[in-house]
Structure formats: structure tokens, C-alpha cells
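Lab notebook page, bench 4
Experiment: in silico fold of construct C2
Operator: M.H.
Input chain length: 312 residues
Purpose: comparison with the prior construct
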Amino acid sequence: MLDPVQYIFIATILFYFLDSIWEIGNIFHPKKFSKTVVNYLISIGLCLHLAFLVTASLRSGNLPITTLFESATFYLFLIVFISVALKYLYRFPSLTPFLMPVITGFSIATVLLVGNKLSLTYELKKFWQFAHIIPIFLGYSAFTVSFILSIMYLTQERQLKKKAFGPLFESLPSLETLDALMWKTITLGFPLLTIGLASGTIWAKTSNILGELWYLDPKVLLGALTWLIYAALLHLRLGASFHGTKVALVTVIGFFVVVFTFIGPFFMGSKHAYVKSSVILKNELPVKETPLKEVPVKDVPVKDVNFANIEL
């Protein structure tokens, strides 16, 4: 059964779904599906999405990351937010027709498959929520947008080779523009991921939640692998011969590693994952039990009592 707050997210999905229809319709029938309606639908959906996250945060007293459901919806919100920001900052309306159907599908899957059954087994103090979780999620969201851009790049390149100059080709920008935006989103996500992993390393060592061999935890290893892939991509991108299609293909690989980093630890015995629990949060640090001191009881002499004077 759905939590009452989750119905706000259901309304969000409805507007995202309608926006997806209008976005695709605008490509093939721009007169029937106007861009004005598209802007209204995605704006209302994004506001509802934010309302859900704020409500969930106020209720739990934490950022909306205490359950897998909240984390997934927070991640989806950041993706849409970054995409809308690109749309208005760079006058790039072509991204959302590719993105919103994907967001809608993942949102529906989140409601049907995730729910609130999986939660954190430890309490993450608010400092670490902002220093570790937020940069990680922002970095992954930027990489997801770069993945969508890479799919657009590969699609446009294929259409150019086949000389398929239809409505879809007309709606997509040039390969140079797509390549530049891929580069911008990757360079945005990489430093954020670096900050998140660095602060997570400090947290793991100081809290000792993941144990002494914290660096062998599956999620830590996958996070390091993700960092290495994008670090290599940035390094290779500086070369004159590594751009365009090569960058797009490596970006696709990097995205699948990001996805596996998010869901893989559930099946790999990671301590750094969401598990079934009736308690949403447990203490981050174990509470030491203070033994009670035994107070010696002095023998108090009992005075003689004259039972004959006691009235029954």
C-alpha cells in the first residue's frame, strides 16, 4: 500500500507522462502539440516533484535519502532539474523529448518495484548528507544527462550517414553542439563525484560502519571504478583524436557502470546499501552502555516493635 505522501509523486508521474507525449508529438506534429504546453507540463511536474521531496524531508527530519524510494526519486528530480537548466541556459529544447519518456518509465518502475521497504541501516549525520550524498547524486545525475546526450549524438550521426533528414533529424542540434554539451555535463559531474567520494572515504574511516576493510566494500569499489572511467574519459578527451563518437560510446559505458553502482551492492553483500528494515534509521555510532555502579546498602537496625499495640 502506498504511503499518502507518495500520491504527490503519482501526480508528478502523470504530468511527466503527459509531457512525454507532448514532447514527442511536438517533433512530428508541432502545430498540434505546442511548445507552450510542453513548458507548462514539465514545470508543473517539476514543482510537484519538489513538493514531494520537501514533504518527505520534513516528515523524516533528513534529506530525502533515508529509503531507496526517496533516493530514487531524488535522483530523478536532479536529472530533470539539470535538463531543464540546460534547456534554458543554452536554449537547448531538444534534450527533454529524449529524456522525459525515460524519466517517466523509471518513475513508474520506482513506484511499482521499490516502495518504502528498503531503508538505510545507519544514520548519516546531516554534515555527511551534504558533504557525501549530495555531491554523489549531483555527479550521477550529470552523468545521466551526458548519457542521454550521447544517445542523441549517436542517433544524429546515424541519420547523417543514412541521409535520413526527417522530423527527428530537424529537431536535433548539430553534432558539434551535442559533443560540446556532453563535455560540459561530464566536466560538471566529475568534480562533484570526486568531492562525494573523498568525503565518503573520510566518513567510512572515522565512523567505522563499513569495518576496517571498508575499501573492499562492493559499493566503494564500484564508485572507484566509476571515477576511473570518467577520469580516463576526461584525460582522453583532451587529445585531438578522441572526441565525438568515441566520447559518446565511453559515456554510454560509464552510465551503465553508474547504474550498476547504484543497484549492484544489493546483490553483492555490501554494508553500504539499503536493506529491509522496520526501523528507518539506526545510530551511526554504537552507543556505549554505561554500567550502573552498585551502591552498597547499609544494614539499618530494626527497632523492636510492640505488636500488641497494632490494631487490626
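Observations: Residues 122-284 form one domain. Confidence is low (pLDDT under 50) at residues 277-289.
Next step: discuss at group meeting.
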